[in-house]
Design a protein that fits this description.
- A 4-stranded antiparallel beta sheet has the order 1-2-3-4.
- The chain folds into 3 domains: 154 residues, no CATH class; 59 residues; 55 residues, no CATH class.
- It has 12 helices and 7 strands.
- By secondary structure, the chain is α+β, with helices and mostly antiparallel strands.
- The mean pLDDT is 89.
- Helix 1 crosses helix 7.
């Protein structure tokens, strides 16, 4: 999810713990805010370019197995500057904030290496967009009311509302999947992506035979609309050669539905690699352009 969502949910978690703690203490909100952003420190490793970003983002800093160790950093750091605070409670809030971050990141399509270092596989539940206005609105409203002293009761409802919303989106996704598999009798591989806004029209990509079908499903009417049909192309030697390049290998590890296109520019042959998951929604946001090596 986005930075704002992680920050709001982390602060919300700290406020809930602060309310139910026997002895409220300082530093909980600061700890949660830092911890909720800590896994995304890997963005700095990707500042050198798109390929580095794809390679490192949601990698080892998003490891479930290493989270208990990462949680020590915010807890100990805040504890040093808040005399009288309990390190144990700070650590609990730090760990829960990191785990909440990992959970929220699993909900969208990007993919998270949550089992690193034992597995480099990216797990994605394709349930929410990276930015979800409803979650932001609920948590922002709850925290503002709480800080104004008018929403202590509502504070305890923000997480149940989140759970209810996720269950509803899961139900909608199952409905979209049912319509998709009813429309396509046989399939090899497919992915469902949530709408940019709302929950009605889900995007899909399905690979059947040697054809990719990209389209949209209306879960209210059951209509399956194919927007684009792409026949899988045979890889020539130039394309195969680009797959030996480290940057392309990183991209292909990330892409669930890789697609290539050839183009000539200034006498050079360029190969563009993209991920079809993002073709309908975000155009060429996730693509890699590389120069093909020729004998000439």
């Amino acid at each position: 999810m986005d930075t704002l969502t992680h920050g709001l949910t982390g602060i919300g978690l700290a406020c809930v713990v602060q309310e139910i703690a026997v002895t409220p203490q300082t530093g909980l909100v600061a700890t949660a805010l830092i911890a909720s952003q800590l896994p995304d420190i890997d963005v700095a490793l990707g500042s050198k370019g798109k390929v580095n970003y794809i390679k490192h983002h949601r990698g080892f800093t998003h490891s479930l197995l290493l989270s208990p160790f990462y949680a020590l950093l915010p807890a100990f750091g805040v504890w040093l500057f808040t005399p009288g605070s309990g390190l144990g409670l700070l650590y609990l809030v730090s760990l829960l904030s990191i785990l909440l971050h990992l959970f929220l990141d699993l909900l969208n399509s990007y993919g998270t290496k949550i089992l690193w270092p034992f597995s480099k596989q990216r797990y994605a539940w394709d349930l929410l967009m990276v930015i979800d206005p409803l979650i932001i609105l609920v948590f922002l409203s709850g925290l503002v009311l709480y800080m104004l002293g008018r929403g202590n009761e509502f504070l305890f409802f923000i997480f149940p509302i989140l759970v209810l919303y996720l269950l509803t989106m899961y139900k909608f996704r199952l409905k979209a999947k049912t319509y998709l598999l009813k429309f396509f009798k046989k399939y090899k591989d497919f992915a469902l992506m949530p709408p940019l806004l709302g929950w009605r029209r889900w995007n899909f990509i399905l690979f059947k035979g040697q054809v990719y079908y990209l389209g949209q499903i209306d879960i209210f009417t059951g209509q399956v609309r194919i927007k684009e049909t792409l026949c899988k192309k045979k890889e020539c030697e130039l394309v195969k050669a680009t797959k030996e390049e480290p940057e392309v290998q990183v991209f292909l590890e990330f892409a669930r539905f890789p697609w290539f296109a050839k183009q000539e520019k200034n006498g050079e042959v360029l190969i563009e690699w993209s991920d079809l998951r993002y073709r309908l929604r975000e155009g060429n946001h996730f693509c890699l352009l590389t120069k093909a090596k020729t004998d000439n």
